[in-house]
Amino acid sequence: MVSFIFAFVIACVLIYTIYFILKETVGFKWLRWLSIPLIAGIIAICYFDDPFGHFFNVFIGSLLFIFVLPILINIISFGKSAAKYYRQARQSDESASKATWEMILGSAAIAILLISFFISPYALFGLLFLLFIHSRLKTTPENKFLKFQQIIPTSKIRSIAMGLVEIEGKITEGKQFKSPLSKKLCYGYRYYEYNVRTDSKGSKRYSLRHSEEKISQFTLTDHSGSVRIEATPETLTFVNFSLYQNYEIGSISYQEYLLFPDEEYLIIGTAVEKDNQVVITQAAPHQLLGIASTRYLDTWNEVAPMRRNLAITVISAAILIAFILTVPYEYHSHHLTVFYRESPLLKWLF
After folding, report:
1. pLDDT one-digit tens code per residue, 41-59
2. Among candidates 270, 176, 177, which has minimal Cα distance to 227?
3. pTM to 2 decimals?
4. Pair 163, 271: CB distance under 8 Å
5. Which UniProt key words apply to this protein (predicted)?
6. How many angstroms separate the CA atoms of 102 and 82, rounded?
7. Prior bond to 285 cis, omega within 30?
8. Is 250 within the bounds of a domain?
9. pLDDT tens-digit series, residues 320-329
């Protein structure tokens, strides 16, 4: 009994020491006090066999429990948050079916990740790799715009041809609106209100409560001429616009994006003839009408090669690390033998 109590106390001290180090170094704090004696009791039961021989196992077991427990707690917290979000969505104007599917798909994604981890670490690695590839290949209007602006030459408005075009200039004519937040006159705005909720971790979560968009057709002008842009809130995509106004009052956050007359913009859309006049609109096959600040695009294009090189480096490092971790080896008499044919990642080659 005395030995058990001694082992129990030592395990408690060891676990708390690890927890304290993690908390002070990386801000780790999600360990419930009740879990310390629980984990210590489990470790102490396994400790009788060979106290000194099992010290390493006690240490590793403590680390594993400390990291696994917050995962379980976060899964439970995710379930509660999902249920709460579902109830809020049902009570608001949001579609109940949309809220239901978001909850089902979110829960299914978490379940698949957990199941793949317990089936095989390689399955989890493969799943995460597929998710990464999917995120890179996913087509959005913003991605299409940024891709096309790198390969399509900028045309002078006076000499644009029919089809997908890229033009640059300032907005000179169009219906003006007064923005709801800053009360500024502009040629279009997107306005959002979010409910702000702070969870037990101190992190803020935002849920949309109201949105408003006002955009009408306008005229873009460069040094060679002008052209009408047939834009609507549904067709015109704001590509990475900077927030003009953004502040919080109480539990509500307000955000606003504006189209200004004195700003240089780049627009990509389809040039068509309408009423004997060339206009820029969203049309098949590309179904793209996007606008972005030229200042943002200059910065984005400057760092694009660095982003590409970083992505290649990260992918190469991940493949190399996976290869190193999965290749069996044997070290004997100062000789290292690598059985690369036994690697799960390379077996299919042989």
Report:
1. 555 555 555 554 555 555 5
2. 270
3. 0.58
4. yes
5. Membrane, Transmembrane, Transmembrane helix
6. 9
7. yes
8. yes
9. 776 776 777 7
